[in-house]
Amino acid sequence: MTDIQQAALTYQCPDNAFKDRIILVTGAGDGIGRAAALALAKHGATVILLGRTQEKLEAVYDQIKAMGAPEPALAPVNLEVARPADYEELAGMLSDAFGRLDGILHNASILGDITPLDQYGYSTWEAVMQVNVNAAFYLTRAMMPLLKNSADASVLFTSSGVGRKGRAFWGAYAVSKFATEGMMQVLADELENVAPIRVNCINPGATATKMRALAYPAEDASTLKRPEQILPAYLYLLGPAGRGINGQSLDAQLR
Ligand SMILES: NC(=O)c1ccc[n+]([C@@H]2O[C@H](COP(=O)([O-])OP(=O)(O)OC[C@H]3O[C@@H](n4cnc5c(N)ncnc54)[C@H](OP(=O)(O)O)[C@@H]3O)[C@@H](O)[C@H]2O)c1
Questions:
Q1: Among the atoms of ligand 1, which is closest to the Cα of residue 211?
Q2: Going from the N-terminus, what domains does the chain have, and what CATH number goes with each?
Q3: What is the dihedral of CA 186, 188, 191, 197, to 10 degrees?
Q4: Is 11 one of the annotated active-site residues of the chain?
């Protein structure tokens, strides 16, 4: 294990580590994204909650307000249908409200079908690529001017074990995660020594969420880590502790 991986897994985030940081989280209404948004807010971040289900975002908003954390912002966006102009519009609103962005956690994804490639549905393929890859590109591109206004910005993409080694039947999801790793590497290389923006990937590992239950319906979820238990590496890479770390693909759990 590398020193960086070790530091990420054992990171104990100080209370105010994210004070005055503005972090956008996609898929913030449920699963790992929800847990990450709550933890970021708890550590002082102003969180922009992006997701497709307004009620879920509002529930997270209420929880953050009840904690006495900085007031979050809601960004209801369906990543499957949003076009580049929608992301530009969101960037304009965030520019007016905050003037900068200190991080993006690209967390939202869909699983698609677990089925052989020669039977994979065309429309499911397109939906998975749209949500997991294209939307992450559109969002990152639109937010780049705001990220450049930060003194220390972190872009964190979410990968998967099947995005590092292909696995039968994982179809568009696995291919989308390879693309995610590739997008991270290209952007990290472009920004190395150019802008104070670092770009990395995180693989959460098996975590008890709706997506995991969809992929492994027979599994006993109580044997898995819960989303709130896998966050040290997220907070490490998104916040000040991860300054200078660029182009890495880390795990959030020991395998
Ligand atoms: N859980 C695991 O074991 C595991 C393992 C490896 C990698 N991952 C990765 O970790 C990330 C989080 O997964 P998770 O397990 O927390 O999944 P999850 O429970 O299914 O949550 C996914 C989140 O993404 C949102 N989302 C999905 N489609 C969207 C769209 N079209 N527009 C906007 N938001 C959308 C969902 O919103 P709604 O709730 O409104 O549908 C939800 O908030 C994903 O990138 C996944 O690939 C998870």
A1: 20
A2: 3-205+231-251 (3.40.50.720)
A3: 140
A4: no
